[in-house]
Amino acid sequence: MSTTKKRNISVLGPTTLTGITIKEPATYAAGLPAVKVALQHAFKEMGVVKSMHILSKMNQKEGFDCPGCAWPDPDSPSKLGEYCENGAKAIAEEATNQRVDNEFFAKYSVEDLSHWSDYQIGKSGRLTQPMLLKPDSIHYQPISWQDAYTIIAKELHALDTPDEAVFYTSGRSSNEAAFLYGLFIRAFGTNNMPDCSNMCHESSGVALNETLGIGKGSVKLEDFDKAEIVMVIGQNPGTNHPRMLSALQKCKENGGKVISINPLEEAGLIRFKNPQEIKGVLASGTALTDIHLQVKINQDVALLKLLIKKLAKLDQEKGNIFDHQFINTHAQGYENLLADVEQYSETELLASCGVDQNLIHQTVELLASNNKIIICWAMGLTQHKNGVDNIKECVNLLLLKGSLGKPGAGTCPVRGHSNVQGDRTVGIMHHVSPALNTAIQKTFGFTPPDKEGLDTVHAIEAMHQGKAKVFIALGGNFLSAASDTEYTAQALQNCDLTVSISTKLNRTHLVTGKTALILPTLGRSELDTKNGKPRYFTVENSMGKVHQSKGLLQPASENLKSEPEIIGGIADAYYKGDHIVDWKNLSEDYQQIREKIQQVFNGFEDLNNRSKGSGFYLPNNVRELDFSKLPNQKAQFSICHLPEHNIKENEFILMTIRSHDQFNTTIYGLDDRYRGIYNERRIVLMHKDDMKKQNLQKLDPVNLISRYDNKERKANNFLVIPYNIPQGNLASYFPETNVLVPYNHFADKSNTPISKSIVVTIEKI
Ligand SMILES: Nc1nc2c(c(=O)[nH]1)N[C@H]1C(S)=C(S)[C@@H](COP(=O)(O)OP(=O)(O)OC[C@H]3O[C@@H](n4cnc5c(=O)[nH]c(N)nc54)[C@H](O)[C@@H]3O)O[C@H]1N2
Ligand SMILES: Nc1nc2c(c(=O)[nH]1)N[C@H]1C(S)=C(S)[C@@H](COP(=O)(O)OP(=O)(O)OC[C@H]3O[C@@H](n4cnc5c(=O)[nH]c(N)nc54)[C@H](O)[C@@H]3O)O[C@H]1N2
Ligand SMILES: [Mo]
């Protein structure tokens, strides 16, 4: 047996500063600067010719789906494709001309690379060849695909039970890959399928399932044209879903109003200069937000309760404010909800949420006189201890107004990764679904396990405790994305084997189990061929529409395999051909995978044909106002509780957010243009009065410290920036601040880490 060398890895990487410049925050999003920045990124990574070729094919019907966010494409996109700065950056990052090859790994050990920043690591380029890190080594070395599969199969066979393996999924994988992966995992015998959703919209899924009977949103893109009010809560579309700004623009042009609820006044929500229109280039563009409610971090329930309470009062006085016919026909729990808001005083709620009283009045007036309301939200609501309640309170408001199941109204959880919703639909799920198990049994002839699996936070705990020993990741960057970086690092390092199926190098490849494998895969933009014939796969967007995506670029290396083929390779090596499923054959034939998806799941009839062109919508009971699966066959009002933070003197609530130049843990650049911060990520935004109280000057370096369960966690070296943020609140970027998030503090019911409300103190350096 080989010995295991203790590797000297820097888990967190460097904390050095990069040379900040600060300017005034921007007052609009997009416009010409966005085009300029997008092209700069694209040309730098891909060169001019390749850039122009590929950018014209993104999000077109016969093109490939943008690997960025999950916002849907309009049915009739412009000739240019719908323009998006951050989509261009996402594609530049994937289609870069830089390569991480054998020489790279021979030159740099994992110890060396661990001292690089995430930015440097990502910029080193695309992975080109399967690589093995042996227990006694600090250098990855090349390995053949077959030998890599054999190592995985051997480690999986060596486990005492299948539950000692953990299979993570990030949300970029296609429906075909995710389906096959889930199928293999179940055949292998576990439901340990943590996925990025657990850290993302899990709270939305739980809340929406319990209240409306489907874990997805109900609106379609065209509803934005018809909406009278769009509320954007805890979401920064200018950066994270830039194409959503066109939808908000249309809403405004048709007379709709936008209410944004956010501790920050995000530039993208102030004004949009659509670069595809003359007025977006030459004139001032479109003002988006009509009312900005600057809520304190995690006081959305207080704010929504206040609005509901005031509306209820008006309804009693004047009538016709709530849609009683809708409530009587479709919902239950109305009286309890009214009794609940009765308990709170308006003064108390107003103080908790910290919003200006006049703005509350204006909002109530708007909500009172309109009935077509869409509520959009993202991580600002989901990543709190009471994330599920945040969303249930939004549903309460929509139910009261009858704003569901009709044009221009409904729920709109704005998803993260471009196929995270699809992955869940086709079976990536740690919970047991008896219906799914029966369908798999019927279709494939084996019985999937019926024991609940581990989600992200519990998988980390299991690996930390030595109860799980093999970790396999289909995409993502588990180490940096998950909470409590040092604890998670130990969890991964305790494993016998960690495997990453990836497009680009990241920190999870450096903080590994005793043995580690990197399996390089094709990206969205690349041609995927079998016997010279191009293949396509399918994805589902944020609004439940399934459509095809077909890459067009030459792959980054001839040694790459598609995700389904890699999964098939692992399964084939594990079963050595002795299984009821012909893994090799199935994994190479996407048409056949789609046929199986169609047999296992409802709503995918004729998938092979219907996914062509602009695609089709999956069934959605809320659109039909069918609540038959819920108690009494009614949509459910919920009683939501106010958060308890018990903030002591000198403590702050920190939200960990995205800069304009990153996609989760992939760092595109060091600027956060809309917030006026350039060339630095180690920053913390703070109210000027709080700075005074803490005796801090602009750009003073500080450490951030969290203390949970008597454990101190520290993130070092951040520069203080005075900013328009509520007092008592701070903002900083993830993943640098993930070290502060305790692994065992997460949302009730959804187990989503509390990344948006970490209690911290500040230590001046
Ligand atoms: N370019 C780019 N696009 C992306 C991503 C990316 O990193 N880069 N990530 C993708 C993924 S996986 C996801 S999940 C989405 C994330 O999209 P977002 O959820 O927009 O991303 P965050 O930066 O986490 O921003 C959360 C917003 O919520 C606000 N907020 C924080 N706490 C609270 C609160 O308590 N209440 C309220 N009302 N607001 C709050 C913050 O000020 C911020 O504006 O974007 C997806 N698209
Ligand atoms: N503190 C804090 N933590 C957070 C969040 C936060 O707001 N605050 N947000 C959370 C959220 S919303 C999410 S979704 C998670 C994200 O968690 P992950 O999905 O795990 O992280 P990413 O950074 O998106 O993963 C990037 C890596 O995916 C790989 N990759 C990219 N494209 C492909 C592909 O097509 N196929 C394969 N196989 N690999 C690919 C590349 O190797 C790249 O390095 O992070 C969460 N963590
Ligand atoms: Mo996400």
TrEMBL record:
Keywords: Iron, Iron-sulfur, Metal-binding. The keyword Metal-binding applies. This is Oxidoreductase alpha (Molybdopterin) subunit. Transmembrane segments: none annotated. GO terms for biological process: cellular respiration. The lineage of its organism: Bacteria, Pseudomonadati, Bacteroidota, Flavobacteriia, Flavobacteriales. One of its GO terms (cellular component) is membrane. Residues 652-756 form the Molybdopterin dinucleotide-binding domain. One of its GO terms (molecular function) is molybdenum ion binding. It comes from Aquimarina muelleri.
